[in-house]
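Thread: Newbie trying to understand structure tokens

Hi all, I'm a second-year student working on a class project, and my supervisor (Dr. K.) asked me to get a predicted structure for one chain before our next meeting. I've only ever worked with sequences, so writing a 3D structure as a token string is new to me. If someone could post the tokens and maybe explain what I'm looking at, I'd be very grateful. Here's the chain:
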Amino acid sequence: MMEPPVTRPIARFRSRPSLRVIAVLAAALILPPMATASADETCIGNSSQSALNDCAGRALEAADQSLNDIYKALIDRVSPQGRSALQTAQRAWIAYRDGQCAFETAGSTEGSLHPMMLATCLSDLTVMQTRRLEAQLRCEEGDLSCGGQ
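---
Reply by user tm_fold:
Sure, no problem. This is what the structure looks like when written as tokens:
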């Protein structure tokens, strides 16, 4: 009786696409609509990766400008102690944002969609931070839950 041929597990897995490739392809299908949704109206309908990268970059620039505007307004409003605390917090937040997005987009660093994924992550976190700082601008006098008033 003849023994069945021995199959090597490694050879079997070589013919399957890696999980990294599958993740990047899934992101390419899912993320472009998300990136265009947060960018200007002129970005809707872009189909090339380069155009999507540019669009996400413009969305990040707009989000960053909004954050800077709110930050400047808040810096002018808070007490000297509050100013120092806000500056420290903002520096720490920038380090967090950059590190978090580097982590979240690590799987795409060698791909053409990486600039879009990175800009989208940075933009999303920047918009959230802008909302947090805006809430500080709307604090009523005497509200102890507001920093540095």
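A couple of things are worth pointing out once you decode it. The chain has one domain: 17-134. Confidence is low (pLDDT under 50) at residues 1-42. Feel free to ask follow-ups in this thread.
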